[in-house]
Amino acid sequence: MAKVEIDNLTKRYGSIVATNDISLDIEDGNLTVLVGPSGCGKTTTLRSVAGLENPTEGMISFDGVDVTDLPPQERDISMVFQDLALYPHMTGKENVAFPLRAEKGYSEEEIEEAVQEAAKVTDCDEFIGKKITDLSGGQQQRVALARALVRRPEVFLMDEPFSDLDELLKRQLRAEVVQLQQEFGVTMIHVTHDQEEAMTMGDDLVVMNNGNVVQFGNPDEVFSRPRTLFVAMFIGSPQINRFDCDLSWNGETAVLDSGEFQFEFSGDEAAPLREATETRLAVCIRPQRLTWADEEPEDSLSVPVTVNVVEKIGTEDIVRCTTPEGYDVTAEVNSGALTEGMEGYLVFDPIDLHLFDGVTEDAERLN
Amino acid sequence: MSTARTNRLKWAGLGLLAIYSLFVGFPIYWTLNTAFKPLGQIGTFPPTLYPKGFQLDAFIWVLTNSRAIDAIMNSLIIASGTTILSVVLGALAGYAFSRFSWVDPGGHVSFWLLSTRMFPPVAVVLPIFFIYGRLGLQDTLIGLILLYLTFNLPLTTWLMRDFFDKIPTSFEEAAFVDGYSRFQAFRRVIFPLVRPGLVATMMLAWVFAWNEFLFAWIITGNNTSTYTTILPTLIESNQIQWNKIMAMAAVVATPPTLILIAFRDNIIEGMTLGMTDI
Amino acid sequence: MSTTRDSLQERIAVSIPIRREKLTPLLLVGPALVTVFLVTIGPMLWSLWLSFNRWTPSSITYQEPTFNGIGNFAWLFTEGRFWNSMANFVYYGGVGVTIQVLLGTALALALYNYVERRSVRIGLLTLFAVPMMIAPLVAGRVWQLLFLPGGGAVNGILGMVGNSGLPWLQSQWLGLTALMIADTWQWVGLPLLIIYGGRASIPDSMYEAAQVNGASRWMQFRRITLPQLQTLIAIAFILRFMDAYKFFDKLFIMTRGGPGTQTELPTFYTYIVGFSEFNIGRAAALTWVIGLGSIITMLLFWRFMNTEGSV
Question: How far does A29 lie from chain C, in Å, by closest CA?
């Protein structure tokens, strides 16, 4: 169990900057998820922590000890690779025992015991004697986890190991990994491009884009107070609703005009807008924060819509609507509440609006 | 296109295959046919389709005559020696090319390596003839073993690089994370997995060395000979000893043929430079 | 035990930097590159120098190499016998390799399309690959026997259909043709295997989609098979053509370039100049001209293929 500190990590490949001056503190015993689209630098960061990449600049330390110049062999880490890297010419058991054989210090009994324990904890003791090539995808995943656990490392790294699995298996394994992490209290860094995976697994999320850390926080913070437009649009399923508006001032009242509708802000609500540097802002609201009304409500903000498509996902329905001018608005309502073709209003509370200074990815949060 | 035409095309295709199969098989059959004939029966007009005076003399000669045995043994030693050398050096280099891409910037080094294949062998043997003379490597087995590396080393490097490329780098990286040095990782993980490819490369290199003629013809003299260098000389009292030649041909063609049958898939992959995976 | 191990690790950790991996690959590649230099590139560079010298080290007219500029090259390009060999090569290389590639392609496609049982296909592929494994010299010897004017099997078969037999290895065109036939026997397998592999890797779904869209078999061939195989056919052609430059063993044993010099090819002529006339400077010049010609041809072909947009 170790605290991992990443300081000013920069990695360049020729003219390509994979990670740009990244600094992170990963708490001891936490499950931290690095999440972002392909090419954002999350895998490079993970591999730098592992020692598989040499940083161009910057430093990495475990519990205050500078490990930047240490090869992976010396770093007391475990890693699960995207392709699992299980050796096909060995059985599951031999794969799990493999890390222990690197040092001559263990006796056969000690190895056997450690392997059995790791297998039991990851639920693969039944088939661990078989050859890797005889195992199913899910079974292989468990063996890979067992192999990573067998040495009880200080830091546990996972490089998108679940991306090729079917939904059911994904959910199952995510839950099991979280359980294992909490049980053993290992410091775990998990890399994924799947924001749902990040939200369900992480104690802390590190949202990355274009080689930079865009936001660091727990799932709640990242979901309800995204720091930039990119985070708002990347995190959350279904995707957040976005209206690009022009800002103008009517005395003390701020007016955001999206072309079809206008939002007015006065008094305290208008205060954050004074900080705006751009005149075109993005206004966002989560589908979960919209409610349906058949008639236009008197004293609440709303937009008129027609229901286009109703997607059933269980207890909720995702309704994709369009406004008279053709804007798409998505809302999440109780199952069965709405049917296609219905006309009505989506009501929202201005407190649930996310305002961003500009309409580019790195537009910063105003409120 | 009508079914009738499709059918005609099919029969034409099958016919072509049949004719070609006969074409391939005929010289093989004729070799054996001639090998079992007494010398007098060869070269008659019309030629006899089967050995009427069936005799094993030619084969016995190949297997007992000291000159023949010496030549075949030398070929064996040279082929095996150069194979081991070329495969060891080629595998090490191939591994480096596969795992350390910066050793081969822009693919230039491997292009160079492959381009040596484009020069006719006489281009190399011409200067080597004199260099070997000065070094005293003329007419020696070791001289040929080293010289054969000219065409075998680029081949083995190329093939082994291909075979190593098929093993993901994550395999070594996983071993590193677990505490293994690169050498240990190679020994415990990579080598067992690349072994089939290694064997195939060895077989292919061996066959090319076994079949070589020009280098041997120029470099060997009175002390050393290979089966290829005695084949043009099997003449007694102005008569070409066809039956002995064909018997020898049959004997020396057997190892490569057996290798082809045993390692068929990998040999074919190697011969087509990795392009064909049956 | 664990504490001493940890502190030992600490001490080692400090002294082994991660940069050490720069040395390993050089050590791995070094021996191979050094060997190639010593055995191949080095000697060839010396021969390049020799090509600018006059050197005839036979015991009768021995002299040290003396620089004579491009003298050897001037001689080369005006030497009739050289051009004779090149003309032969154009016929042998152009016609011969084309036949090999076309035949190989036709056979590969026929094999893939019309032979249903996989075991038979594999068996035939193996059979077709056998000639490639035989030493070219041995194959040459066998074909020499087959082409014997009197008791050769080829003339025997011709005799069965009424022909009185041809003087195969005794004339220019017949000689070159005989060499081509022998070479074809040996090497059609290469384009065959390459094209077969290429055809096998075209997914069935492409053809199925075309069938659903009503395409005839000819259309399928033109629009699916041919474009996909274009590159491989070109590669097969290049490979065989470059090998044709090196053609030697069969020529040596079947005709010795004869009668006279009528079936000579460039590489054989080089051998004569070098090891029969012992004019090393000229022979070296020849090898370089031939070798560079081979590389240039390949590069031109590669450029041609790339600009066609088919890669």
Answer: 22
